[in-house]
Structure formats: C-alpha cells, structure tokens
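hey so i finally got around to running both of the ones u sent me last week. sorry it took forever, my laptop kept dying halfway thru and i had to restart like 3 times lol. anyway pasting them below in the order u listed, first the sequence line then the structure token line for each. didnt double check formatting much so if smth looks off just lmk and ill redo it

first one:
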Amino acid sequence: RTSEVDEMASTTQARPGAGWGWLLASGLAAIVLGVFALMFPLPATYAATMVAAALFLVMGSFALVGAFQGRGHERRGFLILYGILAIVAGALIFLFPVSGAVALTMIATAWIAARGIMEIAAGVRRPKQRWPWIVLGVINLILAIMVWFHLPWAALALPGVLLGVSLLLTGVGEVVGALAHKRGATVTTPA
C-alpha cells in the first residue's frame, strides 16, 4: 500500500527544472517592461496611475458587496464608508490622472521620508551597524526632499521610474530563479 502512495506521489511531482523556460520568459518580460518604463516614464506613470485607479475601484466594489452581503457584521459601517471612499478615489484618479499621479507621488514621498527617519532611528539604536543605516536614512530623506520640492513635475515621471525599477529588480530575480530551477536547484522566496 505504501509503495502505491509513493508511486502516485512521484508521478504527480514535477521533475526538477520543469517549466524553467516559462519562468525565464516571465523574468525577461519584466526586464523588458522595466527598461521600457525607465525609457518612457510618462506613459509608465500613466499606466501605473490607471492601475492604481482600477485597484481602488475594485477594492471599493468588493468592500461594498461585502458590507451589503454580510448583514449584521460588526465592521459593516466601516466597509460601507471604505468602499465609497475607495470608489470615489478610483474614479477621481481615473478622471484626473495627472492629479492622481501627483497624489500618488506625494504618498510615496511621505513613505520615503518616514522610512528615512526610521532608518536613522534604527542606526542610532544599533552601534555595530550604525553608519550604514544612518547613511541610508539620510539618502532617503534627501530623496524625499528633492521630490517634494519638484512637485508637481516630479509626479509626471516618478511613478513610472519606480515601476521601471521594480519591474527590473523583479525580472532579474525571476531570471536568477529560473536558471537555478533549470539546474534542478530548489529556489526559495521570502513569504
């Protein structure tokens, strides 16, 4: 009986390296799209802004459906308010993409500044790794200040550049993973 289970398990498992070509193609596509986004940041910014608008619309719609289908739910009021606000935000970004890009850039800039402050604080608390953290934090603060003082013009390119860098890094990671998978290696990714 055990041998039948083992035989079934071995026949259903993919062999090491199976499908590596598709993984490689996915990584190469991400790299190409990342390069395109960096070469043409304005259309990439528009695309990123439209994706953000679509995400808000979808999230808001699901929140409203959940609120009205889940009667008696303790978060029903929150879901209704959240759903309405998300749909309004998505519609406004869709209707006014330049303003949407400016808003998204302002949010990203605030996040970069907050991250810089947290990195400096982490550096102060870590005597052995103090200077790399402090330097990284200062760089992030300088970047945030530069973007902030170049608004609204920075908003025309920054989301596209961030999208391009993200796609490039994702693509490189996927290519490395695909090549390791081709060799039959087990590649683990952080959860």
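and the second one:
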Amino acid sequence: QLCLTQPGVRDFVFQEMVLRIEKERAELERTNRPYSKVIDLSANDNNHKCVCPECLAMEKKYGAYSGVMLDFTNDIAERLEKVFPDMLIQTFAYEYTEEAPPSGTIAPRENVMIHLAQLGGEYHSVTKVHRDSLRDLDHPNNRMALQEFLNWSRFGTPLKMWDYWVLYDQRCNFPYTVIPALAPNIRKYAA
C-alpha cells in the first residue's frame, strides 16, 4: 500500500489522476461517447495498511484507519474539484478502512463517495465487522454490520454498497445462498 500521509505520494497520485482523466476524456470525446463522472481511488485489495509513525498518528487522531484514508482522499478530491468540478471520487471502506471514523473527527467531502464493502463472517480474521451474509442486516447476527452501514450513512454524502452475493467459504461442499437477504438489504440501502 501507499503511505497516505506523505505529501510526495499525494502530489503523485493527484497528477496521475489528472493525466488519466484527461486521457480518457480525450479518447471518449473523439469517439463521441460520454465519459464517467466517477473515478476510483482505493487501496489495493488486501489488509496491509501503512504502519509508519505518521499514518499511525493520524489513525489515532481520527479514531479509525478510515480517517487516514479519508484525509488522503479528501485532499485529492479537493484538488481534483478545481480541475474537474463534475467528478466524484469513489473510495472503498473495506477491511481496515471499513470502520467509519467517529463523529466530529473527519467526514468525506461532498465529492467523495464511500463504497462500503462488508466481508462476510468467512473472512472474520481480516475485519472487525462480522457480517452474516446469509441473513439480512436487521438480523441480530448483523448488529455490527448494520451499525457500520448507519455510521457511514450519517455523513450524507453518496454511499455505494458492494454486497457479497456469493460466499467464498471452502469448508463445505454445498452451495450457500444469500437470496433471502437480498430484498430486505436492498430496501435498507435505498432508505
């Protein structure tokens, strides 16, 4: 993972994002196709966060590692807004950034969309929130998962859900199904 507190990293990421957006828009305009107004700025898909003294101090300041991610993402989003005011920056709240920062510490900017991905219980070793994917969010087994969803919802900025409709547990040979949880969860997300 990148160190999210280093100014040089922030400058590099901002410059790369501008170049990629400009390149994509130029190509799409040539072919008369619409361009996306959402760009993703997320950590790699693993649970290896930066543990340098600066990142750990920022985690302590914000009360959760998601605060480090939001500080970084907000900085890039503020810069990008000056160049591309129509862009929305999407970032994952996933694994070590799944826990929302406490109220009053830091919040996503208006042009930042949180993409919440709650891993199911089969991944209990990499996340604090133990989601029972077989049951809807209102089920008692999902108290923590529902609370985390509500914690991210409180900011009032765009919130996107990555819901796991397939379980990846290899301990059993029979198929699992999340179908009974789909409709209630979709209604919860839409509310």
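quick thing i noticed on the 2nd:
DSSP finds five helices and four strands in the chain.
anyway thats it, ttyl
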